[in-house]
Amino acid sequence: MPTTTLLSLDEKLLEAQGDFTQVTLTTAIAASKLIVSTELNNYDHAQNGYFDNRWVYIEDKANAGVSRLLGSTPYVTSSGTAYVYGANLLTDGANLAKVRIARSSWADRKDSISRAIGELYPSIYKSIDDLTLILGNPLPNAHLETQTTSGTPDKWAYSNATGAKETTDTWGGVNAVKVTASAANGYMTLKSDNWRRLLPTIQGRTISVYCAVLPEVADDADITIYTKQADGTAQTLTSTTSCPAGEFTILQLEDQSINDNLREAEIRLRVNTDTKYVIFDDCYITGSFPMNDYLLSSDLQSGGIDLVEYQLTGNPPNATDNMCDDFSPDNDYERVFGWDLVDDGSDLFLRLPYAYRSFSKRRLRITGTKPYETLSASTDTIATNKAGEIELIIAFAKYLLYQKKKGVVSSMDKESYEREMYFAYNDYIRLLKHSKPVRSGTIHINPL
């Protein structure tokens, strides 16, 4: 997918203002306040003090990401030397950094770009085609896509193991988890203590648990169900599916009778051998108590849903014969009517009508939109490089930056900034033609 970095957007914003000066230093930064480049002579009109009260942003080397105001000592044109305010910079040794100098600070420009991206939604957006949810599966984030902390799927935890986000070897989505044991029988776990909805959906039921695994060592992965009743009686059920090294296999722990009157329950995805890893992806339960509410993925938590459908056809592997194990784009889907969204104060859930409670082993397909990514570091990216969208972001960011620089009513040159805001806003209106087609937003339609 084409992307654009924050650093590239910043360059385009400065160019749109006619305020982009970028040079490579001709003397490496030492532990001092000096910025030295004879290339500055190309821009300084042979005037001492020319770059004072402007901002320098250092793009790379030891001081990468540093933004400072210039002018602690007046700029010297004969040597191309500018002086930063604040503490001494770090030494670059013999490395020559690249810098950009502008009338606005990196912080103000970054904020204007980020605000523009957020405020332009839904004129520009990232499309979502989500197949992570499975009807009848009570496990939250079972697809392991949502990892607020990279390597630790939300709602899950580790015991004698560590995790890393896996984006190359995945079963069906974008993210999986590579779990490495730090002792024998280390595991990733979903505990009822952290997800109280688990207990009522599995206790007293006959359930099956499935999970796609890719082990480093053959037959080194298993699924374990652990429960404890009120009187302390424990139950441990473990899968025995063979799984070859370096290949995905769907582990199966089928037709397990779960005790009633539970106080604790865990679903453990285990690595048997110390220091070895297993890639886990797409875990699900069948046979649990019928349910209506499904925890939405992080993409859908922050976006808008246009359409919800459920799977009608599939050609699953013989190993499971479960329709949801077929991700083929040729599968047919039927529209879901009467769905709603429910916010419990922490998470957003998709609520399906009662008529869908009996469905299981079928994918839900959710299409919608979300804002483009939030940018913080210079290397962060948004998932577009389309000229029209980038120009629209820059036009609105320029307007927001002038609005910020206009400042309070008594600021000098207030009228100049207001005039530039007017021109920038007109440019933004002109570029709105590059907006994506307006999506319908959240739809609630009941069948006739």
- Span between N and C termini? 40 Å
Derived from helix and strand composition plus strand pairing, the structural class reads alpha+beta
Count the helices. How many? 6
Tell the overall outline: elongated
What does the radius of gyration come to? 28 Å
Low-confidence stretches: 439-448
Please explain how this structure is put together.
There is one protein chain. The strands form 7 sheets. The chain has a 5-stranded antiparallel sheet with strand order 9-12-17-14-15, with no helix packed on it. The longest helix has 20 residues, at 387-406. The radius of gyration is 28 Å and the shape is elongated. 16% of the residues lie in helices and 30% in strands. It has 3 domains: 1-19 and 116-125 and 375-448, no CATH class; 20-102; 130-369, Jelly Rolls. Strand 22 (340-343) and strand 23 form a beta hairpin. Helix 1 crosses helix 2 and helix 5 (387-406) packs antiparallel against helix 6. The relative contact order is 0.15. The protein is built from 6 helices and 25 strands. With 448 residues, it is of the alpha+beta class.
